[in-house]
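Side project, low priority. Logging it here so it doesn't get lost.
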Amino acid sequence: IDEFKQLLQEAENARPEESERLAGLDRAIVLFDVLRRNKVWDDDIARRYEDRLEKLTSNVSAEWASGKKFFAADQFTEAAARWERVANERGELALWRWLMVARAGEQMRAQFTDSLRKMLTELLQALEGQVMTVLPNRVRNLREAFPNPVKPIDYLLGEGEVLLALEDADKAARSDRVETWPAAARAYREAARWLAGVPYGALLAAEYGWQDLEGKAKDLETHQERQKNLQERQERLRQQLAANFAEGLYTLEQDLKLDTS
């Protein structure tokens, strides 16, 4: 218990450059898990320690915690260097998104204001939960505030555009109206185009099943063509039946005339 408390306290008090004091966090995480499973604290105390660890590490690692310290101190290059290593090692979308935020701070420097930081945090929350009720506004607000964003912000907006295009595509594809399917195919291709421009696009595709958006577009077009051919055959059959009926009615009328003459 004493070792865990010491490691946690040292990490909380560490300055960004004191990486050796933050390195003990990985050990602290392991110790916390052992101590909690052995129920050495009541639930309230355990939860408070867990919250303190989460605040430092985001439940990731000591190196991520080190990056958070640098990020909070506006030392974005140092933060990005650490976060990039962790993001590559763990391959988690949330880490890649935050890496993009750090890269944006690195490139924008003094222009990376608290207001922008807040807008990006809100965008990340919407992306993480795929909260479609707020995502359109958050994408639009950022684009209006920064019409020519630096690449890292553009990548995050690109992920948002993928989600918005897919929402349109899925809605049009579910329709019984065949005439909406070309719009769905175009939206799937638009989503694929945005996805290709995101550095962590392969992770997004694997996480959400977006590996073959072009295939979805082609399937819709094939299905639309089949439906169109079916409708044309049905129309020709209707016309033939109508013609046959008219011919039969005419023949019947003529036969009746002969019978009454």
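Brief comment: The chain has a mean pLDDT of 89.
Revisit when time allows.
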